[in-house]
Amino acid sequence: MCRARARRPSSKAIREKLCWENLKKRLTFDIEFNARETTVRRLLKRIANALFPRTVHRRQIRILTDKEVEIGQLSKLVDPSKASIDIGANRGLYVHHLLKLTSKVIAFEPLPSMQQQLEKHYDGLIELHRVALSDHAGSAVIRMPSDNPSWATLASSNKLEMADADKGFVEHKVPLMRLDDFSFDQVGFIKIDVEGYEESVLRGAAATLRRERPTLLIEIEERHNKGSVMRIAQWLIELNYRVYFIDANRPVPFSQFNAARDQDIQNVGLTGKVGRYINNFIFVPNEKASAFENA
Predict the structure, then answer these.
(1) Which residues have C-beta within 8 Å of that of residue 85, sequence separation ≥ 6?
(2) Greatest Cα pair distance in the chain
(3) pTM of the predicted model as reported, rounded to 2 decimal places
(4) CATH classification (class only), 63-294
(5) Residue 65's pLDDT band (boundaries 50, 70, 90)?
C-alpha cells in the first residue's frame, strides 16, 4: 500500500506564518516596553514629589486651573473681608486661589490621602476639617476609583460608570456633620464639589445660607444625580438667589442652560472635559446680583 505524501505548506502560508510570528514578537515587545516605561514614569514622579513637592504641586495646580474657567471669576464672587469655605477641597485647587483673595479659608476634606496633601502644602494657612458634610451627623462609606480621588462620592446615585473598572475601587468610612453644626459667621463664599451629593450638603447648610447669604459655586451634574441641576437651582431661587453659569468667560443666566446641550456626556471623560460641558453653577444672593453682573 502506498502512503500519501505530506503536503508541503505553500510559500504564501509560510510568509503568513512568519509575518504572524514577527507581529507577536513586536506586540510582546511593545507591551513589555510600555509597562517598563510606565513603571519608570511612576518612579520618576515619586522621586520628583519627594524632592520637589512644592514645585510638583504648583505644576499640578496650573494644569488644573486651565480646565476651570470659573477660577477666573473668583475675584467677583469672593468677599475679601469674609471667610471662604471649600467643601470637597481635594488636593487644594480652589484653596490655592482662595488664599490670595479672602481673609480666611476653611476646607472640608474627608479623604485621608487628600488631607495629607492639604496638610503638606497649606499647613498653618487654612482651617482643615477632616469630615464629609451632609444633612445629618454620623458616618458613611465614600467610594472612589482607586486612581482618581477627585471622583470620590457619597451619592448612591453616582455609579462611577466612567471610571476604569479594571483599576478597581476603594471605600473609606468617613465621619459626617452638617455645615450648620459649625455655626460659622462672616462667611462670604462657599464652593461645593461633592460628586452628586450636593443636595444633602445644602440641606445641612440651610441655616448658614439664610444667615450669612454667601455667594456659592457648586458643581452639579445630571450624570451623577438625575434632575439635580433643576432641583438645586429651584431650591436656591426660593432662598432668593440668582443662578448663572460661565460661557465664553462671561456669566449667563440659568434660564439659558440646556442640559441636553450643555451636559452632553460625550463631552466628558476620564481626563475631564473634552468639549462643551457646563457643570459649575454660580448662585448669587439677589441683593448682590447687580454688582456681580456689572463687575
Answers:
(1) 105, 106, 107, 108, 179, 184, 187, 189, 190, 191, 214
(2) 107
(3) 0.80
(4) alpha beta
(5) low
